DNA sequence: ATGATTCTGTTGGATATCCAACACTTTTGA
DNA sequence: TCAAAAGTGTTGGATATCCAACAGAATCAT
């Protein structure tokens, strides 16, 4: 469809940076990961990092975006399983950040995560519920992203159930309108 | 010792090309591997290939050089085990080429392999037998490289023993002078 | 506290890589 | 046999990446 050619150098470099970041995230908390750490691990120049990303938060955002697009490939069907997969991807990502209650960071991270959830939701809703207006879809995505993010935080706090067991029971109450339409 | 800084781009690119070549060598014979194949597999531009290598034979040569330097790291002791390791590396490499009796290629490949064996032998002999003149070492390396290459061809033809079983019995007859001096 | 160290984000110039051509040779296939 | 297709090796200009340097912010150590 839209195969806009990208310079192979940039796909290589972005992959190196993203992989380095993901790898580092398994080792230390986000707040302890510096741009220097990432570029050293990726074996690319620090200036090159800033050619691709605004700062470390931008990297976090695009990293999440990448994870979501990989874990939710070409899925256009709006159903419970899709939402469970999305929720699981979110909790996985937060677990990989392994950060808890760092004042000043939490807000930024939370906004980034919600924004990316919203992007996925808009995509899903646009593909499925084309009978809704753009504005309605946008608002639905917004409130649902807040809901899912809040649920992920609560899940992280309790840790009693698996992500799926945790979220599935309340799916019918989440974004009730489109679910009713398609089931 | 000699940490001459090299641009990280060239180490990346060379590694990509070498790995692509080694990977392709496991799939098809050397004669069927084109420069295009390698660059496509490595995901680098064809022009970049010629920035690093003269042609596909140059790549073959440097690939063997790389393999030898990896399989025979910092070994300076001139003894039977070292020669067995060298011989095994040669037969492994030839097996990975999986080429047999292609007129016109054989000569070039044989010369490349012998040259690289010779390089290793000169290094080993220089480190061990410093009581010999440069000219003597050079000539010893030359005749030994021919011997080892010939042995590897014979081994490839018969295939009856392991590389080690094949070569170890005749080691004392190979390059007898330095072996006597050090044992 | 304060000085030292480390990190950040940015810049200018050097260099490696990309890309699209080109002429030429080799291989393919009808 | 011949024409089309694919590979080779090279070139010039565009672009991504490197590198060294910088000032300012943040962190660390005493």
Structure commentary:
The structure is a homodimer of 183-residue chains. The first copy, chain A, contains nine helices and no strands. The two termini of chain A are 30 Å apart. Chain A is mostly helical. In chain A, helix 4 (56-71) packs antiparallel against helix 5 (80-97) and helix 5 crosses helix 7. Residues 179-183 of chain A have low confidence and may be disordered. The first copy, chain A, folds into two domains: 1-53, Arc Repressor Mutant, subunit A; 56-182, Tetracycline Repressor, domain 2 (Orthogonal Bundle). The A-B interface holds A 8, 12, 43-45 and B 8, 12, 43-45. Chain A binds a DNA duplex (30 and 30 nucleotides) through residues 7-10, 13, 34-36, 44-48, 50-51, 55-56.
Q: What would the keywords be for this entry?
A:
homodimer; 183 residues; mainly alpha; Arc Repressor Mutant, subunit A; Tetracycline Repressor, domain 2; 2 domains; 9 helices; 70% helix; globular; disordered C terminus; DNA-binding; DNA binding (chains A, B); HTH_TetR (chains A, B)
